[in-house]
Design brief:
seven-stranded mixed β-sheet; about 375 residues; about 45% helix; alpha/beta; 13 helices; about 15% strand; homodimer; globular
Chain lengths: ~375, ~375
Amino acid sequence: LQLTVHVPGIAGRTYDVVIGAGAAAALPRYLESAAPAARYAVIAPDDVAEHAQQLLDVLRSAGRSADLLWFPAGEAHKTRDTWAALTDRMLDLRFGRDCAVIAVGGGVAGDVAGFVAATYMRGVPVVQVPTTLLAMIDASVGGKTGVDTAAGKNLVGAFHPPRLVLADPLFLRTLPDAALRDGLAEAVKHGAILDEGYLDWITTDAGAILAQDPQALEELVAQSVRLKAAVVREDPFEAGRRAVLNFGHTLGHALETCSGYTVSHGQAVAMGMVLEASAGEALGVTEPGTAERLRAAVRACGLPVAAPAVDADALLAALRVDKKALEGRVRCVLLSRLGACAQDEAGRWTFDVPEAVLLDAVRADHRI
Amino acid sequence: LQLTVHVPGIAGRTYDVVIGAGAAAALPRYLESAAPAARYAVIAPDDVAEHAQQLLDVLRSAGRSADLLWFPAGEAHKTRDTWAALTDRMLDLRFGRDCAVIAVGGGVAGDVAGFVAATYMRGVPVVQVPTTLLAMIDASVGGKTGVDTAAGKNLVGAFHPPRLVLADPLFLRTLPDAALRDGLAEAVKHGAILDEGYLDWITTDAGAILAQDPQALEELVAQSVRLKAAVVREDPFEAGRRAVLNFGHTLGHALETCSGYTVSHGQAVAMGMVLEASAGEALGVTEPGTAERLRAAVRACGLPVAAPAVDADALLAALRVDKKALEGRVRCVLLSRLGACAQDEAGRWTFDVPEAVLLDAVRADHRI
C-alpha cells in the first residue's frame, strides 16, 4: 500500500509525495511519469551510502542511466563550495539539460542537491528521496533549496519544487533514535497548530511510531505532509498564514543557540512549544491546560520537556535576533487551543510577547 | 516620449521594457510600481562607473535607499566567484528579503547580477538597466541569468525575468562604435528572420542609427524587443520556434571560434547570416537574391561582409560541436525569404545542411 499526497509547487503546479514502506523499489516507475530524463544524477551525502547505492541499483536494473555523486555529510558542508563541486562533477560527466537530479538524504541533501538542480543549466528537474523523518515531513513540502554562508543559514538558494518526493519509511531503520524523535517534534507541532485529533493519535501511538511500525510511520508522514501542504497552499508566498509553522521556534531557536547547540533542533522545538503554550496561557490567548497536554505529547515521544539551565540575558539576546522580531519586539506564534492558532487584533499569526512573559514561562519551568 | 513593450516572463507574468532617451532619470517612478523595495543594490561592472553613479544619484535624490556594488568588468569575471563575492557583499551590507537588485551594464552585468538576485535569500526582484545595444535588444528578453564555468558558458544559472528593463539610448554614447555595430548585427537578424520591412528600415536608416540619433535608436530597440518578445511568447520553453533566433549563429559561432576570437560575436553573426542565406539559396530553400540583400544590410551597418581566411578542417570541427548539431549532423536556421524562416519536412525550424554546402558558401565568399 502506498499513500500519495498532492502538494502545491509554484506557478499552479503540484507534485506528489509518495509514501510507502518499500516504495523505493518502485522509483523507476514513478520517475517515468513524474520526471522522465535521459540520465539521472543521484546525489547523496556519504553517510547514506547504503540507501543511495540501493537506489542506483534499482535505477540501473530498470535500464535507467544513472550515476552516483557523493558529498561530505553534515551541515558544515551545506556550502557554495559543495554546490560548485557537485555541479562541476555533473559537467565533467557530461550531464545535459535532459537529465534530472535525485537527492537522497536528510534536509542538507535536499537543500544542496536541490540547489544544484535549480541552477544546473538554468534548472533541471529534481526528485527528493528523504532518508530522515524530518526531511520526509518538513523539507518535502515548500520547494525550498539552498546553502549556508558565513553570514547565516539558507541565505543563498532558490524555490525549486521537486517533481516527486518518495518517502520510504524503511529508510528510517538506519536512523539513530534521537534523530527519529527530532523529526517527531515537528509532527507534534503540526498537530498542535492544526489538528488536535492528530496530536492525540501521536500521543497514544508514539510507542508504535518509535518502534518503527511501518503502518504507523506511513500514517504519520502522510498526515504531516497533508497538514503542512494545506498551510503552504493557503499562503504560497509566505505572506502571513505560513508563519504558524514557526510555533515553538521563537523560544526553540533561542534555547538551541543558548545551549551552544548541545540541544538538538527537535529537542529545542519540543521545549519551545510547551513554553510558548505556557506564555500564551499567561497572556489569556491560549486555552488553560494546553501546555500540560502538549507536555504529555512531547514526553510520549521521548523528547525532553526540561531544557538545560540558560542565562536570562543570553536568552533575551538570542530572542531579539529572531527573524520574526519586529522593530526589536519578540514575536511568537500562539495557540488559541490545541489544533488552532490565534490571530492578533491586526489579524496577524504572530503576537508581540513581552520578554518578561517569556522569561516567566522559562522560569516557571525551572530553566533559569 | 517613452516607448513601452510588454514582454513575457515566466508563469504567465509579463514585464515592461521601457525605452527612451533620458528615461534613466525616471527610474524611481518606474520602480514604484514595477519593483518597490525597502532598499536597492545597484550592481555594475567597473567600466560603467559613470552610468551606475548617475543611477545611484537619481535613486538617492528621490529618497530611495541604495548602495553601489562593483565587480571587475569582462566575460572573464562572469563566474561563480564574482557571484559569491557580490552576494557576500550584500549580506555584509545587511540587505534583507525586501530589497531589489538593479543590474547596470552589458550582457555580463545582466547575467551575473541577475543570478545574484535569483539566488539571494531564494530570490529577490531584479531590474535591468542595459548600457549596450546588444543587452538592450537581446538580453532584455528571455529572463536568462547565469555565469560561466571552466566547462563552458552559461552552464550555471536560473530563469529569473526582471520586473522591469529600462533602456536609455543616451547610455550608448559612451559605447565604442564597434560595440554599437555588434549590437546592430542582432537587430539585422531580427529583421531577416521576422520582418522584412524592419530590415529595410535598418538598411536605409543605418546612418542615423550609427550617428546615435535618439529617435532612431528608440525605434530600433523597441522594434527588436517586440520581435524577440513575440518569438519567446510563442515558445516560452525553447521547444522549437525559438530556434529561429539562432539564424546566422551556426556558421557565426564557428567563424568566431576559428578566428581565435579576433572576430567579435556581432561581426561573426553578420558574416554567418550572409553565408547561411547563401547556403539556403544553394539548397533551394531560400529565395534567390536573399543573401545579396542581407549583404547590403550588413554593409550599411558598418559590419564586415568578409571574414578572415579560415582552415576548412578547423571550421568543420567547430561546426560539429555546435549545440544545435543532431547526431553529428550540422543544423542551421534557414530563411525562406527575408522576414520569414523555413521549416523542414518534419516541421522543425532548423535544417540538416550538408557540410559541403556550408564549405561551398564560405569558399564562394573567398574565405577559404
